[in-house]
Design goal:
Blueprint: E1 2-8, E2 15-19, E3 24-28, H1 35-42, E4 49-54, E5 57-58, H2 64-70, E6 71-74, H3 91-94, H4 97-105, H5 122-134, E7 140-144, H6 152-167, E8 171-175, H7 179-185, E9 188-191
Parallel strand pairs: 3-8, 3-9, 6-7, 7-8
Antiparallel strand pairs: 1-2, 1-4, 4-5
Length: 208
């Protein structure tokens, strides 16, 4: 279970909620309302006041690299640190049948790993980042607009895989502008208020 107590992301009011294994929380709100900042805070990527627990362990009690393996953040514009996607995957993972099935489930092929990232479409990079997030068996997936840049067919594949992750017992926090997607996948919904004034989140942390 992921539990959040009194998390403070100004100018939002303190946030508290719980999400059980196999459940999805949809975080909704206008651009700049803080959706991306909330996901990054849950992943321990940005400092924030408040408590975040996973299966009873508080975030600050777990080494940051270990926490980020368990609570995996997928940005709306994922970063890559190599010329081809293969550099983002461990060699002993990329050659397994299970990994090839994961690629196929989102409409990709093993050969896509060796394409120059600049030659891949935004949708292909997003789907590769989704598969990358599944490696290492995370308990929580934090998905920032996972279908926003995809065509209808690719978005349907990702939605199906999110549903499968829920069936597998993973917790999903989904930040989205797509209310229909939110309604289809979520067990609970958190609506963030519209930003007000110059102190509001500009979206610079990731464009929520």
């Amino acid at each position: 279970m992921l539990r959040v107590d009194n998390l403070r992301l100004a100018p939002l009011p303190p946030l508290s909620f719980e999400i059980a294994e196999g459940e999805c929380l949809a975080v909704e709100g206008a651009s700049g309302s803080g959706k991306t900042r909330l996901l990054r805070a849950l992943a321990d990527l940005d400092p924030v006041e408040g408590l975040v627990f996973l299966d009873g362990a508080e975030r600050d009690e777990v080494p940051a690299p270990q926490w980020r393996q368990l609570v995996r953040y997928v940005a709306a514009e994922p970063g890559w640190w190599s010329d081809t996607p293969r550099g983002g995957f461990a060699a002993d993972v990329a050659d397994t049948e299970r990994f090839r099935r994961q690629l196929a489930h989102v409409g990709l092929e093993p050969g896509d790993l060796d394409c120059n990232l600049a030659q891949l479409s935004t949708g292909e990079r997003l789907r590769l980042a989704f598969v990358r997030a599944l490696q290492g068996e995370p308990k929580v997936l934090l998905l920032d607009e996972p279908t926003a840049s995809l065509d209808g067919a690719s978005a349907a594949l990702i939605e199906e895989q999110i549903r499968y992750q829920l069936y597998a017992g993973r917790t999903v926090v989904l930040a989205t502008h797509d209310l229909a997607l939110s309604q289809r996948l979520s067990h609970a919904r958190l609506r963030l208020p519209k930003p007000r004034g110059p102190g509001a989140d500009s979206g610079a942390a990731g464009g929520a």
